[in-house]
Structure formats: structure tokens, C-alpha cells
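Hey team,

Filing this mostly as a record. A colleague (T.K.) asked me to run one chain through the structure pipeline before their review meeting, and I want the input and output archived in the tracker in case anyone asks later how it was produced. No errors, nothing strange. Just documentation.

Input sequence:
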Amino acid sequence: MASVARVTTLSVSSDTSFDDAIKAGIDRANKTLRGVSGAWVKEQKVEVSAGNVVSWRVVLEVTFVLDD
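Output structure:
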């Protein structure tokens, strides 16, 4: 039997790091979606204020397997 997967896009920001933003996105996806099997970091951005990085943002493409 074949499995069917779907991809959804999440935009997540963190005041700490890219890694923290990715973890927060995966944690959030797991609260809502069943069968999360992977994610692709599609985009990374930083917000700068007064010459300092103040926010890290990622766009994730999260893959999850659909229930039968």
C-alpha cells in the first residue's frame, strides 16, 4: 500500500536563533498535525535594529503523512 503525504508552510520567528525558530516550528506542527515526517528550511531571515540582530525567522515546509 502506498502512503500519501502533504506539505504545509510555516513561518516562525525566535528572539534567540535559527535553531530555536526551527525547533519551535516543528514543536508547533506536532501539536496540530499527525504524522510529521520531515521539514525543509525554505528561507532564513534576520531582523536588525541598531546594528544588532534582534529576531531570527525561518520559513519551513513541513511534510506529514495523511491517515488512511
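Quick notes for T.K.: The mean pLDDT is 95. The chain is about 20% helix and 55% strand.
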